[in-house]
Amino acid sequence: MNLELIRIIETADLEAAWAIRKEVFVVEQNCPEDIEWEFEEESIHYLASLNGKAVGTARWRQTENGIKLERFAVLMEARNKGVASALVQKLLDETNDQNLKRYLHAQLQAAPLYAKFGFKPHGPNFWEADIEHVKMVKE
């Protein structure tokens, strides 16, 4: 199994990331498409490929609250193969020198993954796109 993670520079890679997000969030999870494409321009995007096929993506952006890690998406066929963990680690490595608080809005079923990287729940659960989330902050 060959897993490769890149910071997206090429348009074709960004389009591959968008296709993954559309499949996971819009089709599979029924998220409204209009909120899926917010903050694209100010975000730094990443693509994960498994054996040469684009299977995962994530991004980060700076907000008034720090660095927000978001839009972690892995195609169903590539889940439970370490892709999501590799993406979390990549974004943490890439933002480590920012000296800003790092946080994310985790879907509840994904919260244990982020907890493994030192993220802790912060505040009450909330609903976003009809999916229950919890804000998590990196300690």
Structure description:
The protein has 139 residues and is an alpha+beta fold. The protein has a single domain, classed as Gcn5-related N-acetyltransferase (GNAT) (Aminopeptidase), CATH 3.40.630. It is 29% helix and 37% strand. Strands 1, 2, 3, 4, 5, 6, 7 and 8 form an 8-stranded mixed β-sheet that branches. A hairpin with a 2-residue loop joins β7 and β8 (131-138). The longest helix is centred in the N-terminal third of the chain and has 18 residues, at 11-28. The termini are far apart.
Give the SSE map.
Blueprint: E1 3-7, H1 11-28, H2 33-36, E2 44-50, E3 53-63, E4 66-74, H3 83-95, E5 102-107, H4 111-115, E6 119-121, E7 126-128, E8 131-138
Parallel strand pairs: 4-5
Antiparallel strand pairs: 1-2, 2-3, 3-4, 5-8, 6-8, 7-8
CATH architecture assignment name: 3-Layer(aba) Sandwich
Helix content: 25-40%
The CATH C-level class name = Alpha Beta
Pick out the low-confidence regions. Answer: none
- Sheet-strand content, in percent, reads 35-45%
Integer average pLDDT? 95
**Which value, in Å, is the CA radius of gyration?**
14 Å
Number of strands: 8
Could you provide a short overview of the structure?
The chain is α+β, with helices and mostly antiparallel strands. Helix content is 29%, strand content 37%. The chain is built from four helices and eight strands, in the order E-H-H-E-E-E-H-E-H-E-E-E.
Main traits of this protein?
single chain; 139 residues; alpha+beta; Aminopeptidase; 8-stranded mixed beta sheet; 4 helices; 8 strands; 37% strand
